[in-house]
Please model this.
Amino acid sequence: MTARRVVVTGLGIASPLGCDVAEAARRLYANESGVVAMPDWDRLGHFSPRVAAPVAIPRALEIPHKAARTMGRVAQLATVATAIAVRDAALGADELTGGAVGLAYGSTHGSSQANEDWVRKLVASNSFLGMTATTYLKFMSHTTAANLAIHFGIRGRVLCTSAACVSATQAIGQGFETIGAGLADVMVCGGAEELHFSHAAVFDMLHAASKAFNATPELTPRPFDQRRDGLVVGEGAGTVVLEDYERARRLGKRIYAEILGFGTNCDGTHVTNPSSDGMRGSMELALRSARCGPETIDYVNAHATGTTIGDIAESRATHAVFGDRVPVSSLKGHLGHTLGACGGIELALSIEMLAGGWIAPTRNLETVDAQCAPLDYVVGAPRRARLSRILCNKFAFGGINTSLVLAGL
Model:
């Protein structure tokens, strides 16, 4: 339980639907897809996926070369999203460097492209001649947190989360708990991921990557659908600025939402096969943290990546907590799976839905798989709804589960 109320005062994203939250929400409402064909992957052998969800960074938002010297693409995406969020929250340089602002940020790992470049040079020459430590700084596991702290001059506590698909949500949860405990007044939180073929290859080896729709990328992924054949990897970054409620109100800040509760646990059973019991437990922990019951939740933003086992387990866990009365949808059909970034990007878009009174459908969901639980799936078109409290779920390899409860103000 936290003693202080925690609110969201800034939002920033770099997503397959754009690098402006309002524009991405508009495209989400229009049911557009950020998934495209990847013809460059044709050169790879024993590799089936040919679709992904990349980000186009507008030239005006690109990080100057000098500032990006130690940044791979993952850190650059994080910096783009964070610059937007910091500006949105009206955080000045004096605040950022004053010690009262902290940072919690993560990714699955560092820059995969930088890591590939390092290894290719080493294997080609069997020598480190001409290689620099700068490359390592781009692919070290805490590259996003370290580079953000340096770029923005943050001198408060810096926490790094590296937990695959819950990296961003764990960072946001840590920020929530840090402010609630009085250890910081402001926390800049989120997660990022860069697109690389190796990510898709891992899921392909696990028979969990979509490949049946390579010629029609707009038709995949298909969360909860009986024709789903796996996830589609994406990239991006999502950043939220969290503040103590009393501070935000005193300074006249715009408040997007309040974070009421955070839950996280571990299945403790299998590295890649999810557990419905663990997922359910995470949701129940978040509700307990928020001091509210399942009957108070108006929408569940599902993780639901389009994998056979994962969607079934998550739907059954959600049904165990909420029954069939709460609308449920996944944003993966629009965005692909942005891995370490998804908790930040999808939270920002969920806040847009909360404020606007609508729920995005699960894109490409046509016929619900009979093995999935009988939930109130939002399909076809956005649904108008009166939203007061919502719950956002994200789950990761290792059986790590996270859930956040948010409320409008």
Observations:
- The radius of gyration is 20 Å.
- The chain has one domain: 6-407.
- The mean pLDDT is 96.
